[in-house]
Amino acid sequence: MKIKKVVLAYSGGLDTSVIIKWLKGTYGCEVIAFCADLGQGENLKAVKSKALKTGASQAYVVDLREEFVKDYVFPMLRANAVYEGAYLMGTSIARPLIAKKQVEIAKKEKADAVAHGATGKGNDQVRFELTYYALQPGIKVVAPWREWEFDSRESLIKYAKKHGIPVPVTKKKPYSTDRNLFHISYEGGILEDPWAEPPANMFTLTVSPEKAPANPRYIEIGYENGNPVSVDGKKLSPANLLKKLNDIAGSHGIGRLDIVENRYVGIKSRGVYETPGGTVLHIAHRAIESITLDREVMHLKDSLMPKYAELIYYGYWFSPEREALQSLIDEAQKGVTGTVRLKLYKGNGVVVGRKSPRSLYNPELATFEAETVYNQKDAEGFIKLNALRLKINSKCRNEK
Fold first, then answer.
1. Domain 178-355 falls in which CATH fold?
2. Is 302 designated active site?
3. Pick the catalytic residue: 11, 78, 92, 95?
């Protein structure tokens, strides 16, 4: 494969730092580094400088924080998407946006290829490349981990040291991380033993529940048509709202997760995650839906959620089926408006109140006290009609 110019999804970490030099040496091509600012909390000026010093001809750093939360995280939260019953998919949802912007830069710079640092064992290679091909079908893709001679991160570290490339992975921190405004993930190294408890000093966004404040914190989250728009009555932009909730929930030890998940390529992988603000928003959204969504619409949404979550986890954000599901979900979110009150205490976020101008909750119907709205006698015919097929089935079995 002949390549003249390639745009690399660059993080400044070990893999992509080595990749710049490897691409130039292997393909003799020009390398443009692209770093997406998704709120990872790094000095991105230093990342840009490192890319240029390592051999990139240009280095883009693009602030995507608001777009990330508004157009990727919020749609996912509107669907209540959770992978395998636990994972809120902070890494999964970031990849399609990074890849989309990468393709846009490739078009602008007239590059004939794109590259990424995802391994041949993981999900990210799929997420990146499905997006590349969905948005620019003829693009060439370079995936160094599927091509080069390196077989481990130890061999990468040796190569980097030999060529004077600074590396962030050390024996003191023998695991890899991925961080954005929605979460931070930890995997590999000492975490590869699923029996070993993560070290207490590893966590970044959350205090341990044991060390969280002794007094609970009450917060109120305002919603408009399925999207969170305010915290404690103050309206905030999507990125600022999520950042504020990260700070509040993280200080109360909320959002930690330790799971063994099934990767798309067929490997089981242990991941440890912190998603403080996202955990609170997931809980709050279900609460506001509970009083604003019709029963059958809610049950339909819930039945579709595993498939929707799987599509995101597998990398099909730009697929026609995900977009079709999103249209249905967003139609259902019209009227999901109101306020949810939560109590945050030592790792738990508990709903303690919900209200809405569009509420379907009717106290006169729900009460156990005397009322005149609901005729309890009506339930007798309802039950008998629904029992009819059960009676017929039972009679048929007994006759046989």
1. Argininosuccinate synthetase, chain A, domain 2 (3.90.1260)
2. no
3. 95
